[in-house]
Amino acid sequence: MFADLHLHTIFSDGTYTPEALTAEAQRCGLAAVALTDHDTMEGCPRMAAACQVAGIEFIPASELTAELNGNEIHLLGYFLDIENQKLQAALARFQEVRRRRIQEMAARLNQLDVPLRAEAVFALANCGAPGRPHVARALVQGGFCGSLDEAFERFLKVGKPAWVPKFKISAADAIELIHQAGGLAAMAHPGLNRSDEIIPALARAGMDALECFHTKHSTAMTEHYLQLAEAHQLLVTGGSDCHGLSKGKPLIGTVKVPYELVTRLRDRALAQAVERGFKIATASALPTETPTAD
Ligand code: AMP
Ligand code: FE
Ligand code: FE
Ligand code: ZN
Protein backbone atom coordinates (compact mmCIF):
# COMPACT_ATOMS: atom_id res chain seq x y z
CA MET A 1 0.00 0.00 0.00
CA PHE A 2 1.34 3.40 -1.05
CA ALA A 3 0.46 7.07 -0.76
CA ASP A 4 1.26 10.17 -2.82
CA LEU A 5 1.26 13.11 -0.41
CA HIS A 6 2.03 16.02 -2.75
CA LEU A 7 -0.53 16.81 -5.48
CA HIS A 8 -1.96 19.89 -7.22
CA THR A 9 -5.20 20.54 -9.10
CA ILE A 10 -6.79 23.35 -11.14
CA PHE A 11 -7.51 25.03 -7.79
CA SER A 12 -3.87 26.22 -7.87
CA ASP A 13 -1.42 25.69 -10.73
CA GLY A 14 -2.21 22.07 -11.58
CA THR A 15 -4.07 20.93 -14.68
CA TYR A 16 -6.18 18.06 -13.28
CA THR A 17 -9.62 18.53 -11.77
CA PRO A 18 -9.97 16.83 -8.36
CA GLU A 19 -12.08 14.13 -10.04
CA ALA A 20 -9.55 13.46 -12.82
CA LEU A 21 -6.70 13.39 -10.28
CA THR A 22 -8.62 10.89 -8.16
CA ALA A 23 -9.20 8.72 -11.23
CA GLU A 24 -5.42 8.76 -11.84
CA ALA A 25 -4.79 7.89 -8.17
CA GLN A 26 -7.10 4.90 -8.59
CA ARG A 27 -5.30 3.86 -11.78
CA CYS A 28 -1.99 3.97 -9.85
CA GLY A 29 -3.49 1.86 -7.07
CA LEU A 30 -2.76 4.47 -4.39
CA ALA A 31 -4.26 3.77 -0.93
CA ALA A 32 -4.07 7.40 0.23
CA VAL A 33 -3.54 10.84 -1.27
CA ALA A 34 -3.12 14.38 0.05
CA LEU A 35 -4.20 17.42 -1.98
CA THR A 36 -1.58 20.13 -1.44
CA ASP A 37 -2.66 23.04 -3.64
CA HIS A 38 -0.66 26.26 -3.10
CA ASP A 39 -2.17 28.50 -0.41
CA THR A 40 -5.71 27.11 -0.78
CA MET A 41 -7.93 24.21 0.23
CA GLU A 42 -10.67 25.03 -2.27
CA GLY A 43 -10.27 21.71 -4.09
CA CYS A 44 -10.43 19.56 -0.93
CA PRO A 45 -14.22 19.06 -0.67
CA ARG A 46 -14.45 17.82 -4.28
CA MET A 47 -11.35 15.64 -3.94
CA ALA A 48 -12.65 14.18 -0.65
CA ALA A 49 -15.95 13.31 -2.31
CA ALA A 50 -14.25 11.68 -5.32
CA CYS A 51 -11.85 9.73 -3.07
CA GLN A 52 -14.72 8.49 -0.93
CA VAL A 53 -16.38 7.02 -4.02
CA ALA A 54 -13.05 5.57 -5.19
CA GLY A 55 -12.23 4.03 -1.80
CA ILE A 56 -9.05 6.08 -1.42
CA GLU A 57 -8.10 7.69 1.89
CA PHE A 58 -8.03 11.47 1.52
CA ILE A 59 -5.87 13.81 3.59
CA PRO A 60 -6.95 17.48 3.51
CA ALA A 61 -3.82 19.57 3.08
CA SER A 62 -2.22 22.68 1.55
CA GLU A 63 1.25 23.91 0.53
CA LEU A 64 1.77 27.27 2.21
CA THR A 65 4.19 29.87 0.86
CA ALA A 66 6.47 30.81 3.74
CA GLU A 67 9.79 32.47 4.41
CA LEU A 68 12.73 31.99 6.75
CA ASN A 69 15.86 34.17 6.73
CA GLY A 70 14.96 35.46 3.28
CA ASN A 71 14.52 31.96 1.81
CA GLU A 72 11.16 31.13 0.23
CA ILE A 73 10.11 27.78 1.59
CA HIS A 74 6.98 25.74 1.04
CA LEU A 75 5.39 24.28 4.15
CA LEU A 76 2.99 21.42 3.65
CA GLY A 77 0.18 21.25 6.19
CA TYR A 78 -1.46 17.81 6.54
CA PHE A 79 -4.73 16.78 8.23
CA LEU A 80 -5.90 20.40 8.28
CA ASP A 81 -9.35 21.26 9.59
CA ILE A 82 -10.77 23.13 6.60
CA GLU A 83 -13.34 24.83 8.82
CA ASN A 84 -10.72 26.29 11.16
CA GLN A 85 -11.38 30.04 11.29
CA LYS A 86 -7.78 31.26 11.54
CA LEU A 87 -6.76 29.00 8.68
CA GLN A 88 -9.69 30.21 6.57
CA ALA A 89 -8.73 33.82 7.28
CA ALA A 90 -5.09 33.17 6.35
CA LEU A 91 -6.04 31.41 3.11
CA ALA A 92 -8.42 34.30 2.23
CA ARG A 93 -5.53 36.73 2.75
CA PHE A 94 -3.29 34.61 0.47
CA GLN A 95 -5.96 34.76 -2.26
CA GLU A 96 -6.29 38.51 -1.93
CA VAL A 97 -2.56 39.18 -2.20
CA ARG A 98 -2.18 36.68 -5.04
CA ARG A 99 -4.84 38.62 -7.00
CA ARG A 100 -3.06 41.90 -6.28
CA ARG A 101 0.21 40.39 -7.47
CA ILE A 102 -1.39 39.38 -10.78
CA GLN A 103 -2.70 42.93 -11.20
CA GLU A 104 0.77 44.30 -10.58
CA MET A 105 2.34 41.87 -13.07
CA ALA A 106 -0.26 42.90 -15.67
CA ALA A 107 0.50 46.59 -15.00
CA ARG A 108 4.22 45.96 -15.55
CA LEU A 109 3.52 44.06 -18.76
CA ASN A 110 1.32 46.94 -19.94
CA GLN A 111 4.23 49.33 -19.35
CA LEU A 112 6.27 47.04 -21.61
CA ASP A 113 3.57 47.43 -24.29
CA VAL A 114 2.19 43.94 -23.69
CA PRO A 115 -1.54 44.65 -23.31
CA LEU A 116 -2.36 41.61 -21.13
CA ARG A 117 -5.34 42.25 -18.86
CA ALA A 118 -5.39 40.91 -15.30
CA GLU A 119 -9.00 39.84 -15.94
CA ALA A 120 -7.78 37.53 -18.72
CA VAL A 121 -5.45 35.84 -16.20
CA PHE A 122 -8.24 35.54 -13.61
CA ALA A 123 -10.62 34.07 -16.19
CA LEU A 124 -8.02 31.53 -17.26
CA ALA A 125 -6.94 30.64 -13.71
CA ASN A 126 -10.55 30.49 -12.48
CA CYS A 127 -9.37 29.76 -8.92
CA GLY A 128 -8.43 31.58 -5.76
CA ALA A 129 -4.69 30.95 -6.03
CA PRO A 130 -3.52 32.45 -9.34
CA GLY A 131 0.23 32.60 -9.88
CA ARG A 132 2.94 33.05 -12.48
CA PRO A 133 2.07 29.84 -14.35
CA HIS A 134 -1.39 31.32 -15.06
CA VAL A 135 0.16 34.60 -16.26
CA ALA A 136 2.45 32.57 -18.53
CA ARG A 137 -0.50 30.61 -19.94
CA ALA A 138 -2.44 33.85 -20.52
CA LEU A 139 0.57 35.35 -22.32
CA VAL A 140 0.67 32.35 -24.65
CA GLN A 141 -3.11 32.29 -25.11
CA GLY A 142 -3.10 36.03 -25.93
CA GLY A 143 -0.42 35.47 -28.57
CA PHE A 144 2.13 37.60 -26.69
CA CYS A 145 4.56 34.69 -26.22
CA GLY A 146 5.16 31.55 -28.23
CA SER A 147 5.62 29.27 -25.23
CA LEU A 148 5.45 29.12 -21.45
CA ASP A 149 9.26 29.01 -21.35
CA GLU A 150 9.44 32.19 -23.40
CA ALA A 151 6.97 33.89 -21.04
CA PHE A 152 9.16 33.04 -18.04
CA GLU A 153 12.45 33.86 -19.77
CA ARG A 154 11.31 37.25 -21.12
CA PHE A 155 9.03 38.46 -18.36
CA LEU A 156 8.34 36.32 -15.31
CA LYS A 157 11.56 34.81 -13.96
CA VAL A 158 13.07 36.36 -10.84
CA GLY A 159 14.64 39.67 -11.88
CA LYS A 160 12.81 39.83 -15.23
CA PRO A 161 10.74 42.99 -15.86
CA ALA A 162 7.28 41.64 -14.96
CA TRP A 163 8.41 39.63 -11.94
CA VAL A 164 6.75 40.68 -8.71
CA PRO A 165 7.83 39.20 -5.37
CA LYS A 166 5.34 36.85 -3.76
CA PHE A 167 3.66 37.32 -0.41
CA LYS A 168 4.95 34.86 2.19
CA ILE A 169 4.14 34.31 5.82
CA SER A 170 6.93 33.62 8.28
CA ALA A 171 7.76 29.95 8.74
CA ALA A 172 6.97 30.24 12.45
CA ASP A 173 3.53 31.69 11.68
CA ALA A 174 2.87 28.98 9.08
CA ILE A 175 3.78 26.21 11.53
CA GLU A 176 1.59 27.77 14.23
CA LEU A 177 -1.28 28.19 11.74
CA ILE A 178 -1.03 24.54 10.71
CA HIS A 179 -0.85 23.32 14.31
CA GLN A 180 -3.81 25.34 15.55
CA ALA A 181 -5.81 23.85 12.64
CA GLY A 182 -4.97 20.38 13.99
CA GLY A 183 -2.38 19.67 11.31
CA LEU A 184 1.24 18.64 10.87
CA ALA A 185 3.84 20.84 9.16
CA ALA A 186 6.39 19.45 6.70
CA MET A 187 9.02 21.28 4.66
CA ALA A 188 8.41 20.54 0.97
CA HIS A 189 11.21 19.56 -1.43
CA PRO A 190 14.21 20.62 0.72
CA GLY A 191 16.48 19.54 -2.14
CA LEU A 192 15.15 22.42 -4.25
CA ASN A 193 15.94 24.97 -1.54
CA ARG A 194 19.52 23.89 -0.99
CA SER A 195 19.52 25.59 2.39
CA ASP A 196 19.81 22.68 4.79
CA GLU A 197 20.98 25.04 7.52
CA ILE A 198 17.40 26.21 8.04
CA ILE A 199 16.13 22.69 8.81
CA PRO A 200 17.30 22.66 12.46
CA ALA A 201 15.67 26.08 12.96
CA LEU A 202 12.43 24.79 11.47
CA ALA A 203 12.57 21.71 13.70
CA ARG A 204 13.06 23.98 16.73
CA ALA A 205 10.07 26.05 15.58
CA GLY A 206 7.97 22.89 15.88
CA MET A 207 8.02 21.57 12.32
CA ASP A 208 6.94 17.94 12.35
CA ALA A 209 8.18 16.36 9.14
CA LEU A 210 10.49 16.58 6.12
CA GLU A 211 9.56 15.72 2.53
CA CYS A 212 12.41 13.31 1.82
CA PHE A 213 10.85 11.68 -1.24
CA HIS A 214 10.18 14.09 -4.13
CA THR A 215 10.28 13.99 -7.93
CA LYS A 216 13.26 16.36 -8.03
CA HIS A 217 15.28 14.51 -5.36
CA SER A 218 17.99 12.15 -6.54
CA THR A 219 18.48 8.88 -4.64
CA ALA A 220 21.46 10.45 -2.86
CA MET A 221 19.39 13.50 -1.88
CA THR A 222 16.61 11.29 -0.54
CA GLU A 223 19.17 9.37 1.56
CA HIS A 224 20.62 12.65 2.80
CA TYR A 225 17.22 14.02 3.87
CA LEU A 226 16.21 10.73 5.49
CA GLN A 227 19.34 11.08 7.64
CA LEU A 228 18.56 14.72 8.43
CA ALA A 229 14.97 13.77 9.36
CA GLU A 230 16.28 11.17 11.76
CA ALA A 231 18.85 13.53 13.25
CA HIS A 232 16.17 16.15 13.95
CA GLN A 233 13.44 13.69 14.93
CA LEU A 234 11.25 14.65 12.02
CA LEU A 235 8.67 12.36 10.44
CA VAL A 236 9.11 11.51 6.77
CA THR A 237 6.74 12.51 3.95
CA GLY A 238 6.92 12.31 0.18
CA GLY A 239 5.08 12.69 -3.05
CA SER A 240 5.27 13.39 -6.75
CA ASP A 241 4.33 17.13 -6.65
CA CYS A 242 2.15 16.31 -9.65
CA HIS A 243 0.87 19.42 -11.47
CA GLY A 244 -0.49 17.31 -14.36
CA LEU A 245 1.39 15.62 -17.17
CA SER A 246 5.18 15.64 -17.20
CA LYS A 247 6.83 14.65 -20.49
CA GLY A 248 3.41 13.45 -21.63
CA LYS A 249 2.80 11.18 -18.64
CA PRO A 250 0.87 11.71 -15.39
CA LEU A 251 3.35 12.46 -12.62
CA ILE A 252 1.04 11.25 -9.83
CA GLY A 253 2.21 7.99 -8.29
CA THR A 254 5.73 8.20 -9.73
CA VAL A 255 6.97 9.14 -6.26
CA LYS A 256 5.09 7.42 -3.45
CA VAL A 257 5.65 6.52 0.17
CA PRO A 258 4.72 3.36 2.08
CA TYR A 259 1.29 3.68 3.69
CA GLU A 260 2.99 3.06 7.05
CA LEU A 261 4.22 6.69 6.92
CA VAL A 262 0.63 7.94 6.65
CA THR A 263 -0.26 5.97 9.76
CA ARG A 264 2.65 7.57 11.62
CA LEU A 265 1.67 11.05 10.47
CA ARG A 266 -1.98 10.55 11.42
CA ASP A 267 -1.06 9.13 14.84
CA ARG A 268 1.19 12.14 15.50
CA ALA A 269 -1.48 14.62 14.32
CA LEU A 270 -4.06 12.97 16.57
CA ALA A 271 -1.75 12.91 19.57
CA GLN A 272 -0.76 16.57 19.11
CA ALA A 273 -4.33 17.74 18.54
CA VAL A 274 -5.46 16.00 21.72
CA GLU A 275 -2.49 17.38 23.66
CA ARG A 276 -3.15 20.93 22.41
CA GLY A 277 -6.94 20.68 22.55
CA PHE A 278 -7.33 21.20 18.79
CA LYS A 279 -9.68 19.41 16.42
CA ILE A 280 -8.10 17.14 13.81
CA ALA A 281 -9.50 16.80 10.30
CA THR A 282 -10.45 13.39 9.03
CA ALA A 283 -11.90 12.77 5.59
CA SER A 284 -15.25 11.86 7.15
CA ALA A 285 -15.37 15.18 9.01
CA LEU A 286 -14.78 17.13 5.81
CA PRO A 287 -17.83 18.61 4.10
CA THR A 288 -17.97 16.99 0.68
CA GLU A 289 -19.48 18.21 -2.52
CA THR A 290 -21.34 16.04 -4.99
CA PRO A 291 -18.77 14.78 -7.50
CA THR A 292 -19.06 16.57 -10.82
CA ALA A 293 -17.94 15.46 -14.26
CA ASP A 294 -14.79 17.05 -15.74
P1 AMP B 1 4.62 31.58 -8.37
O1 AMP B 1 4.35 30.70 -7.19
O2 AMP B 1 3.40 32.31 -8.80
O3 AMP B 1 5.80 32.48 -8.18
O4 AMP B 1 4.98 30.57 -9.55
C1 AMP B 1 5.91 29.55 -9.32
C2 AMP B 1 5.64 28.39 -10.26
O5 AMP B 1 5.93 28.78 -11.59
C3 AMP B 1 6.54 27.22 -9.96
O6 AMP B 1 5.93 26.34 -9.06
C4 AMP B 1 6.68 26.56 -11.32
O7 AMP B 1 5.64 25.62 -11.49
C5 AMP B 1 6.47 27.69 -12.30
N1 AMP B 1 7.75 28.12 -12.89
C6 AMP B 1 8.74 28.82 -12.27
N2 AMP B 1 9.75 29.06 -13.13
C7 AMP B 1 9.39 28.53 -14.32
C8 AMP B 1 9.99 28.45 -15.63
N3 AMP B 1 11.19 28.98 -15.87
N4 AMP B 1 9.31 27.81 -16.60
C9 AMP B 1 8.10 27.25 -16.35
N5 AMP B 1 7.48 27.28 -15.16
C10 AMP B 1 8.11 27.92 -14.15
FE1 FE C 1 3.09 24.74 -8.24
FE1 FE D 1 6.47 23.66 -3.79
ZN1 ZN E 1 3.85 21.54 -4.84
Structure commentary:
The protein is α/β, with parallel strands linked by helices. Helix content is 43%, strand content 18%. It has helices at 18-27, 44-54, 85-111, 118-125, 132-141, 148-156, 171-180, 190-193, 198-204, 219-231, 259-276; strands at 2-7, 32-35, 57-68, 71-78, 169-170, 184-187, 209-214, 235-239, 245-246, 249-250, 257-258. Strands 1, 2, 3, 4, 5, 6, 7, 8 and 11 form a 9-stranded mixed sheet that branches. The chain has a two-stranded antiparallel ribbon with strand order 9-10. Helix 1 packs parallel to helix 2 (44-54) and helix 3 crosses helix 4. It is globular and about 55 Å long. The model has no long low-confidence stretch (mean pLDDT 94). Zinc ion (ZN) binds at residues 6, 8, 36, 63, 241. One fe (iii) ion binds next to loops.
Which features characterize this protein?
two-stranded antiparallel ribbon; alpha/beta; single chain; binds adenosine monophosphate; binds fe (iii) ion; 294 residues; 11 helices; binds zinc ion; nine-stranded mixed β-sheet
Please describe the topology of this protein.
Blueprint: E1 2-7, H1 18-27, E2 32-35, H2 44-54, E3 57-68, E4 71-78, H3 85-111, H4 118-125, H5 132-141, H6 148-156, E5 169-170, H7 171-180, E6 184-187, H8 190-193, H9 198-204, E7 209-214, H10 219-231, E8 235-239, E9 245-246, E10 249-250, E11 257-258, H11 259-276
Parallel strand pairs: 1-2, 2-3, 3-5, 6-7, 7-8
Antiparallel strand pairs: 1-11, 3-4, 4-6, 9-10
Helix pairs in contact: 1-2, 3-4, 4-5, 5-6
